[in-house]
Specification:
The chain is of the alpha+beta class and 217 residues long. The protein is built from 6 helices and 4 strands; from the N terminus they run αααβαβαββα. A 4-stranded mixed β-sheet has the order 2-1-3-4, sandwiched between helices.
């Protein structure tokens, strides 16, 4: 009996130690992931700043290269899209502390708006036909979720399309309220195509393709 009792105690201690080690390791990995997201956001921010400085430099010399500018912005858009994917996944797994997540989300939101502005300016400067879509959505909204899936398919079929997704319910940045007021966004999902065409209902893939084709014409 004594031997069995000692064995049970040792087993319980060992189980507790293994569990504790697992928690510590898990926390360390979570911390590394959040740090990685922040590092990537900072890199994206620096890349955007690099682009702006580059354009100012070449504008001064009178040698603005639209092809190079478009390539740089497309790369930035892809980086930001990947970061958005990781942020959503990590949020669902409750990896971030609340204050940490709020900070990362605000940086991501501001990076999106900055990139959208850069793309809009580039379209005007270089007379580009690449469609831009501002997508206002609400989390846990079935129509928003469906619209997001349609946009995912659209971008895969048409890589020249850039989509900027904005959580309409986000309260962490006053700028979002000003943007919603500017575009008169009152419901979700809402799409703003090339800064002019507004659709505040669900748009299927076929109609979206027709809209962007008209935009490119």
């Amino acid at each position: 009996m004594v031997t069995n009792k000692k064995l049970l105690i040792r087993t319980a201690i060992l189980t507790t130690v293994v569990f504790a080690i697992g928690v510590v390791i898990g926390f360390s990995f979570d911390s590394l992931r959040s740090t990685s997201v922040l590092d990537n956001l900072q890199k994206s921010e620096l890349d955007a700043q690099s682009f702006l400085v580059e354009q100012e430099f070449f504008n001064r010399l009178g040698t603005y290269d639209c092809t190079v500018a478009q390539s740089r912005l497309t790369q930035l858009s892809q980086q930001l899209g990947e970061l958005g994917f990781y942020l959503v996944n990590f949020e669902e797994k409750n990896i971030f502390k609340q204050e940490e997540y709020d900070y990362l989300l605000r940086k991501y939101f501001l990076s999106e708006i900055r990139l959208y502005t850069l793309f809009t300016d580039l379209k005007e400067t270089c007379d580009l036909s690449n469609p831009l879509i501002l997508y206002f959505f609400s989390p846990q909204d079935s129509l928003s979720e469906l619209q997001g899936k349609v946009l995912d398919v659209l971008v895969k079929k048409h890589p020249e399309v850039s989509v900027f997704s904005l959580n309409s319910n986000y309260q962490g940045e006053l700028l979002l309220d000003n943007i919603k007021t500017y575009y008169t966004v009152t419901k979700t999902p809402t799409l703003i195509i090339d800064d002019t065409l507004k659709r505040d209902d669900f748009v299927d893939l076929e109609e979206l393709e027709a809209l962007i084709s008209h935009s490119e014409a």
